[in-house]
Design goal:
mainly alpha, 53% helix, 95 residues, 4 helices
Amino acid sequence: MKFSANVGGWDRGIRIVLGLVLLVLGLTNVFSGALEVIAYIVAAIALITGIVTFCPANALFGINTRRVKTEPEATAEEFRQSGNDEDESSPGSRV
């Protein structure tokens, strides 16, 4: 199974910052007990998904915050060179 990146840009930055903040809060004993464990778990998930740019929950719901690079459109010259030019002024083009 191939995992395609679905976390990018601001989403990635927020995940990494949130993960680091929760990690620091947990390590400095701001949280205690079950809340501390939850902070560590959320921090780990946020950091991992931010670093590897893949989130299973995003994939499950079809969310993609990563910019998709599109191929540039062919120029007129490239189009002509590919043999796809059907010039309307040519004699055999009109029926």
